Amino acid sequence: MTEAEGKDGNSADVRGSDIASYANAVGESPSRRTSEAVLRGDINRLLTRSDSTRRTLQACTDAIVSNLNVVIARIWTLKRGRGILELQASSGLYTGLDGKYSRIPVGHLKIGLIAETRVPYLTNAAPGDPRIENQEWVRREGVVAFAGYPLVVDDRVVGVIAIFARLPIGAETLETIGSIAGIVAQGVERKRSQRELRRAIKANREAVLGERTRIAREMHDGLLQNVTGIALQLRAVLPRVRSAPEEAATVLERILELTERTSTEARLAVVGMRHIAESGDVVKALQSTVERAMEESALDLSVNVRGRTRAMSSRVCDAATSIVQQAITNVLRHAQAQSVHLAVEFGIRRLRICIRDDGRGFLPDRGATGATHFGLLGMRERAREIGAELRIRSALERGTTVSVFVPYPAK
């Protein structure tokens, strides 16, 4: 039902379909009909623009005020799954989008009731109308009429459009507002669909980029390092093939084992799995990683575990072992160290993993270039993925310490 002014000047309930019949008593001039036809075309054109929803709807209310004899035109939108109408556009006497009427719960005030009932509301007797709350403003501004329409798409309310006028609203004007409400509703829904599509495209692009980064990091952390090791060992064994064939055969067997392991790690990288992280035993995973990385090295290795051990997620194990492997690789390639110390400490709130060497060190702001730089970048990315903090301390001739602080998950 829609409230309107009866013949005796009092309020009367009029069905939405009867609004035009009720308003026929109000005359319509040819110039007004032309203006309203232009307005419908303008609204259609504005809603096809690529502007944001708010700018587009603001342009629509501006056009309504310019073409109809109204003092205020406003549009609220209703997000899916929400119960609050949000003011998106306001033209005429008030152009601000904040204040008392910027957020209206569905079912509250005249605007919220329009959204709840999905029925238009009209009155040509605004002074004294119980649904128009601010009667002092109505009298001060000389407002006579109000018309509000729900914006409905596929039986779902997406907003409300409303106007205030100082003259009674006629039949053709009501028809124009009703058609504009339908056009705006479709436009709001189209804008929403476009936003969701853009978000989906962005998420897909980020997922693809993340996967590329992961594969590149996996290749750097495992595959490329192992291939480099194979090439170095092959180059070293060549002089021994003739002079010491038995020794060369032993070396070649180790190279074959490394080759097979590289193949396995490459397959695991493609599917995003790391076999060393499956058990959740981060200490075992770290020790296995360090021992494997240093099996061909003469460096002294010491391991210290403190605190009450606890199982960690496969993501944490995977990231931690990759960081430690990269740290050990940097020691072997660049540090010229004599010893390496691995410390794992299970604290009260977080896990601390520390790799310390006694090598030549570097200046963190200048020494991280080339392959080393990419390794440090990968370490930071790994830490960020699990919400961990990575700290690197180094000084010339005083070694390097790489520490990872992993917070425990909230219970």
The CATH topology annotation of the largest domain reads as Beta-Lactamase
Instruction: Give the name of the CATH architecture of the largest domain.
Output: 2-Layer Sandwich
- Our measurement of the CA-to-CA distance between the termini, rounded to an integer number of angstroms, reads 53 Å
Round the mean pLDDT to the nearest integer and report it.
78
CATH-defined superfamily of the largest domain: GAF domain
Strand content: 15-25%
Give a structural overview:
With 411 residues, this protein is of the alpha+beta class. It folds into two domains: 2-199, Beta-Lactamase (2-Layer Sandwich), CATH 3.30.450; 277-411, Heat Shock Protein 90. It has eleven helices and 13 strands. It has helices at residues 19-23, 30-46, 53-67, 109-117, 135-141, 171-237, 240-243, 245-270, 282-293, 314-335, 370-385; strands at residues 2-5, 11-14, 72-78, 84-92, 103-105, 121-123, 145-153, 156-165, 300-306, 339-346, 350-357, 389-394, 400-407. The strands form three sheets. Strands 5-4-3-8-7-6 form a six-stranded antiparallel β-sheet, with helices on both faces. Helix 2 (30-46) packs antiparallel against helix 3 (53-67), helix 2 runs parallel beside helix 6 and helix 10 runs antiparallel to helix 11 (370-385). The longest helix has 67 residues, at 171-237. It is elongated, with a radius of gyration of 36 Å. Mean pLDDT is 78; it is low at 1-27, 271-277 and 367-372.
